[in-house]
Design brief:
This protein is an alpha+beta fold. The protein is built from ten helices and 21 strands. It has helices at 5-37, 44-55, 58-68, 72-97, 99-118, 129-150, 170-208, 276-279, 313-319, 348-352; strands at 152-153, 168-169, 260-265, 272-275, 285-292, 303-312, 333-338, 343-347, 358-363, 366-367, 377-379, 393-399, 422-427, 433-434, 437-446, 452-459, 465-466, 468-469, 479-487, 490-500, 523-528. A hairpin with a 6-residue loop joins strand 3 and strand 4 (272-275).
Length: 532
Amino acid sequence: METHPSRDARSRRATGVVSGLVAAVAGLAAAQLASAAGRPEASPVTAVGGAVVDLTPVAVREWAIRLFGTSDKLVLGLGILAVLAAVAVGTGLLAVRHLPAALAVTGGFGLVGALAALSRPEASWRDALPSLVGALVSAGVLYLLVTAGRRTRPAGAVHDGADGAGAMDRRRFGRLVVAVLAASAGVGLGARRLGAHGSADATASRARFLLPRPTVPAPPVPAGADLRVPGLGPFLTPNQDFYRVDTALVVPRVDAETWRLRIHGDGVTRPLELDLRQLLARPVVEHDITLTCVSNEVGGPYAGNARWLGVRLGDLLREAGVRPPSEGGPADQLVARSVDGMTIGTPVEAVMDGRAALLAVGMNGRPLPFAHGFPVRMVVPGLYGYVSACKWPAELRLTTFAAYDAYWVRRSWAQQARIKTQSRIDTPRPYADLSPGRVAVAGVAWAQHRGIERVQVRVDGGAWQEARLGTSDGVDTWRQWVWPWQATAGRHTLEVRATDGTGTVQTGTRTGTVPDGATGRHRVEVHVRALG
């Protein structure tokens, strides 16, 4: 029986597509197993994703945060997998025509993954192995499947011996595909279990960790700080709802019992190296502090308020012999380096001027979540997170802004960034459909380390009206506010502005987040239904 040429071409294409995709799955599973045995950050998807984040222009990254929010890392990972799938299909189609070229493409992508892994902070030559192992396995599976597919007879064809003794039918090819996928699933499951075992010590150390009693406890949140207006979030943001914006595609899971912090650099006369027990042998304090991300646009969600427990960072630096620039110290920048290599530069003066700059271990009465820095993170009120809030720090180095640019500064952000005075309308939501009558317009305002003294609201560009403020919990936290609006039928624009503790009124000039935080006033458009 003779095979129809077009049917034979379709069969070859199908063989190529299936072979390419299955080979990619096998290679990724093998690479994942290799990275689980070493560093999770070295897996190809994570390494390439990290390199993409590093190389992405600031404007594109800010657009992704606006569009996808805290799901930006998931979207990035899915995008990389989609690209890999497309390349796998193309490589499979190439393989049925020219197998050596397809194998070379597979090896090239393995090299790209290896180079991406080696470009990551704290990388060693071992980090190249997962991508190389994955490429080798993928190439082997591709060769196996494509050569088997070349010997596959269409269903119903009469075998006359021309194909040779090694001829296979489609069923046998299908069984080979299923076997490879089953093996890949087993390898992937093994990688997951190995990764879980690798982080088990960290998980167990967090479960065992008991927060110390504060030497200086924070007073209770004052009555009236939480206005309890429907649609307005709680005064203290629950840990699970607290925003997270960072570059870690894989959240570091640090074992509290092996964590170490080194303090050294310019002006350090007594270098320190501390474990967690030694750190917490010092006085422990509690303080309510609102954190804000510099990527937060006007009215954005990337601000949260929590009760932090930790050791005063300024006291620790003085113990190491550090003097701030105002006292003649040679260093004006404190560079914190995370366990994953992220660097964040903080003004030494701000850390040592008496504000509650902390090496925090607790958040709202619980050990820090892994995603928020367990076992230790920095919290410095009054500064945007990218210049103050290093998570998982392993090193604190004293230097100068002239001598060193931290990670974000090398990507067009300002060296220093004091939080701008901002306010936000949380209720009603944009484009809400409201009934006429009394409507509670409410939200939050913040100007950390200066405090909020006044919030005003206006409708449709009219006169500013005084909002009622929640009770102040100090200058380092946001304040809730509410204004009763007698809503009338039609479309309306609500606008808010705040005045900070220095008397500075929030500007109406609209600017973007780069280089040191957004400015402008939050506006919300709503529709009020007509009576009847």
